[in-house]
């Protein structure tokens, strides 16, 4: 039996015929907050068995009764080869999530509580971006660390003004949290490139500029975290 909190419900909403729905198995339960969220947003609760497709189709219009091993879900009903650009993008984001979790764990171990919290924002962005991709919903503005788009740009471009720390090249002598955040930032750049390839049209434009812009802002945000750590002014717990 699973107990769904409001956060879990938000992460598992599905799109059915243009309407948001939530599928719930008979043995699963909702917390009061989760049930209130669904009621207030008029999101119907449907039996989990209705979520299972009766069949699949490909982007070329072919209909399939079973899922071949070389294919995977683009969404609930549509199957694509596993090397489809959108599947590659999702795999890159999966790797980014793993790097962010390691960075968050390292920040906790070294006592950088504010950095740990801000990495949680980055992690939530990546998870929401995949959800919006799968459901083909627009990605709403997502402030990272409480910073707006213009604030992210200003702080990442002029760190001396905001953090009394110039741009720098990471070195092995710096703390492990900074090095792990730097690694996550590099993977975020790869996710941004994978996003562009996944949604590039024939004219070279991106059909999901909301996601592409989001990943560009994410890498800037992670660079800001590195700058804060490099400044030596980020608070740590007192250690014996």
How many strands, what sense, and barrel or not for the largest sheet? 4 strands, mixed
* DSSP helical segment count: 8
Strand tally is 9
Question: Helices and strands: which structural class?
Answer: alpha/beta
Catalogue the unreliable spans.
none
Strand order of the largest sheet: 7-6-9-8
Radius of gyration: 21 Å
Share of helical residues: 40-55%
Mean of residue pLDDT? 88
Shape: globular
Terminus-to-terminus distance: 43 Å
Query: What's the SSE pattern?
Result: EHEEEHEEEEEHHHHHH
Q: How much of the polypeptide forms β-strand, as a percent range?
A: 5-15%
Structure description:
By secondary structure, the protein is of the alpha/beta class. It contains eight helices and nine strands. It has helices spanning 6-11, 32-40, 85-110, 113-135, 149-157, 159-163, 176-199, 209-230; strands at residues 3-4, 14-16, 19-24, 29-30, 45-47, 56-58, 63-64, 71-73, 78-81. The strands form three sheets. Strands 7-6-9-8 form a four-stranded mixed sheet, with no helix packed on it. A three-stranded mixed sheet has the order 2-3-5, with no helix packed on it. It is globular.
